[in-house]
C-alpha cells in the first residue's frame, strides 16, 4: 500500500508539473501577444517601452506580419500542445467513465471511493483547462485583432485627402492592408477550442463522443430523450 501510494503521488506530481510548464508557456505567449498589439499605438508603446511604428508603408506592413509570425512560433510548440492534448484526452476519458457509471446506476455512483477520486481528478483537470482556454482565447484575440488594420486604413484615407499627390503610393499601401486583413482571417485554425490547439481527431471525438454521453446522462436523469 505504501509503495502504491508513493507511485501514485510521484506520477501525480509529474503530471501536474507538466501542466504548470504548459501554463507558463501560455502566459508567455499572452505577454508576447499583448506587447505585439501595442506596437502600432504610440501611447502604449511609450508606456511599455517597446518600439513603435505605423503601418503607413509596405515595408512596415511586411515587418509587422513577419514579427507576428515569429512571435506566434516562439517558444515550445509541439511539446506544449502534446501536454494540453493529453490533459484534454484524460479529462475526456474520465468524463466518459463517470457518465457511464451514472448511466449504470446514478443512485450508487457516489458510494464507490474510486468515483470520488475520478471526480477530484476531473475537477482539477477542468480548472486547468479553463485557465489555459482563457489564456489561449485572449492570445488569439490579440493576434487576430483586425481593428488595428482597419484603423490604419482609416488613417490612410484621411492622409489621401490631405496629400493628394501621394494618392497612388497610399492606395498601394491600402491594398496591402486589405490583403493582410483577409490573410489574418484565413489563418485562424478551424480546430481550436477556446484558443487551445486541437488535433482534428480529438476535435471530432469531442464533438461526437462527449456530447453523446452528456446527452445520455441528461436523458436518464430527466426521464425523456435529449439530443445534444
TrEMBL record:
GO terms for cellular component: endoplasmic reticulum. The chain crosses the membrane at residues 6-26, 82-103, 115-133. The keyword NAD does not apply. InterPro entries: PHTF1/2. Keywords: Membrane, Transmembrane, Transmembrane helix. This is PHTF1 factor. It comes from Peucedramus taeniatus (Olive warbler). The lineage of its organism: Eukaryota, Metazoa, Chordata, Craniata, Vertebrata.
Amino acid at each position: 500500500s505504501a509503495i502504491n501510494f508513493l507511485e501514485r503521488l510521484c506520477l501525480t506530481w509529474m503530471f501536474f508539473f507538466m501542466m504548470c510548464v504548459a501554463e507558463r508557456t501560455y502566459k508567455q505567449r499572452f505577454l508576447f501577444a499583448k506587447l505585439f498589439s501595442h506596437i502600432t499605438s504610440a501611447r502604449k508603446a511609450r508606456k511599455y517601452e517597446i518600439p513603435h511604428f505605423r503601418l503607413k508603408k509596405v515595408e512596415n506592413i511586411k515587418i509587422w506580419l513577419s514579427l507576428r509570425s515569429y512571435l506566434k512560433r516562439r517558444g515550445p510548440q509541439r511539446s506544449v500542445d502534446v501536454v494540453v492534448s493529453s490533459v484534454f484526452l484524460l479529462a475526456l476519458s474520465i468524463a466518459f467513465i463517470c457518465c457511464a457509471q451514472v448511466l449504470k446506476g446514478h443512485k450508487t455512483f457516489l458510494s464507490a471511493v474510486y468515483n470520488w477520486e475520478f471526480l477530484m481528478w476531473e475537477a482539477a483537470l477542468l480548472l486547468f483547462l479553463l485557465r489555459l482556454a482563457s489564456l489561449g482565447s485572449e492570445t488569439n484575440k490579440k493576434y487576430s485583432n483586425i481593428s488595428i488594420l482597419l484603423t490604419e486604413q482609416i488613417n490612410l484615407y484621411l492622409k489621401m485627402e490631405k496629400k493628394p499627390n501621394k494618392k497612388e503610393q497610399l492606395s498601394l499601401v491600402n491594398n496591402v492592408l486589405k490583403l493582410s486583413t483577409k490573410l489574418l482571417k484565413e489563418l485562424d485554425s478551424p480546430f481550436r477550442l477556446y484558443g487551445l490547439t486541437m488535433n482534428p481527431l480529438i476535435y471530432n471525438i469531442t464533438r461526437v463522443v462527449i456530447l453523446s454521453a452528456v446527452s445520455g446522462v441528461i436523458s436518464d436523469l430527466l426521464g425523456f430523450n435529449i439530443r445534444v
